[in-house]
Design goal:
Blueprint (H helix, E strand, L loop, with lengths): L2 H11 L6 E6 L3 E6 L7 H5 L6 E4 L3 E4 L4 H13 L2 E2 L7 H10 L5 H13 L3 H20 L7 H19 L1 H13 L3 H10 L4 H9 L22 H22 L2 H43 L4 H20 L5 H13 L5 H4 L1 H20 L2 H16 L3 H11 L1 H19 L2 E2 L16 E2 L3 H26 L2 H5 L2
Parallel strand pairs: 1-5
Antiparallel strand pairs: 1-2, 2-4, 3-4, 6-7
Helix pairs in contact: 1-3, 4-18, 5-8, 5-14, 6-7, 8-9, 8-11, 11-12, 12-14, 13-19, 16-17, 16-18, 16-19, 16-20, 17-18, 18-19, 19-20
Length: about 475
Amino acid sequence: MTNQELSLKILELVGGKENVTAATNCMTRLRVNLKDYTKADIAGLKATEGVLEVIEMDNLHVVLGPGKAKKVTDLFKADAGVGEAMSTEASWQENKAAMKAGQKQGKVKTALKAVGDIFVPLIPGVIAAGLCSGIATLITQANPGYADVKWLYIIHQFLTMINTAFMTYITAWAGYRAAEKFGATPILGGMLGMITTMANINTISQLMGGFFWVPEGGDALNAVLRAGRGGVLAVILGVLLMAKVEKWVRSKMPDALDIVVSPIVILAICVVPYVFVIMPITGIISNAIVSVVGAVCMSESLFIRMIAGFLGSFLFLPLVAMGMHHGLVALYTVQLETIGFVTLYPALAMAGAGQVGAAIAIWLKAKRTGNKRMMSVIGGALPAGVLGVGEPLIYGVTLPMGKPFITAGLGAGFGGAFCMAMKVAATTWGPSGVLALPIMVAGGNSATTQMLCYVIGLIISYVMGFIITNFTLKDADVANA
């Protein structure tokens, strides 16, 4: 039987191309991911000429022998019309690329990715501002009389200044990035974003009165239109409108007038609907989002908070693997703008800690079964995981093995439940693992209490990730991984 004939025969016996989701190979095996493993004819595969053995694990391993496995796999992927499957023998970068290549880009995922692309370049500023805010909070709580100590007061002023510099103009940064993403002129997007926070908005709202402003003596924060209303959500939608308007304006504008006239025409067309329509509507949406998340994450019911923390931690890494986590960035930003801290992030940060616990359990089993390659992979990825860089463990160990990815999430859920139960909140998002400790100082308790609760949450996630993985994963699963 030729390699091509063998490929087609294997495809037939595993249930046809409609039953195959991915395939890869190691030195001796074709590894096939199936939708329904009951459709595979294992006896028929074992009886096929050229097949040395069939092993049923997290996926189907068809043993073909050195050299032949690679050739047949290449033909099999073409015959089945599928991409690469993840393998513990591949690097985590290769597995990540295979995972992303196999994902379908629907409208929702594309929209969420666009939001993520806008904010990713802002993350260094987000982290710097949040860390400065966290350290400034620690100073004020550790030494209430810090203002009387000149050098300490100066340090506090610098930290506050750095945080304020970012938070005051976050809508401008978001507008600039959104314009780059949507194809508008970046500086015009930045200007539209900065307009969002201008005090002139309040004056305009008061002059319009009625629907837009609050009654005399009312709280301006309740106004339908006010400075900052809608925040980054308003900016993203506003710049999306601007991109379409700019394309139309520049297509009609004579070249000789374009550079001078087009910018003011674009802004003139966009700013009125932005201020009177987009800002009020997105303001209502922002408030609703913050209220819903706050009602869950800061609920007076301990049970509700714990369930929310468990589910958030458990589901976070699957969202990352599917590319659906980008939308959370907008949620974080809305919370940070509206209430000054982020409630959901501390629980989600536990997800990586669950991976660490699971990896330790796998390492011990690998040592017991003599899988030195797996020990080496985990040994290289584990320090990064402790520091909050989870990709090497996710794509190099737990996700390719399958079951540990679930057990790690379950372990993380317990740490997330604890953090949510203790109402731990963060001054920003971005850092994870032990590196996130300085930002876990917001919420209802003192900064030191919040940090201690975060550390306890990490330990719980490590321990539970280890225990659940250790009891559900067999030595044979690790020996053959």
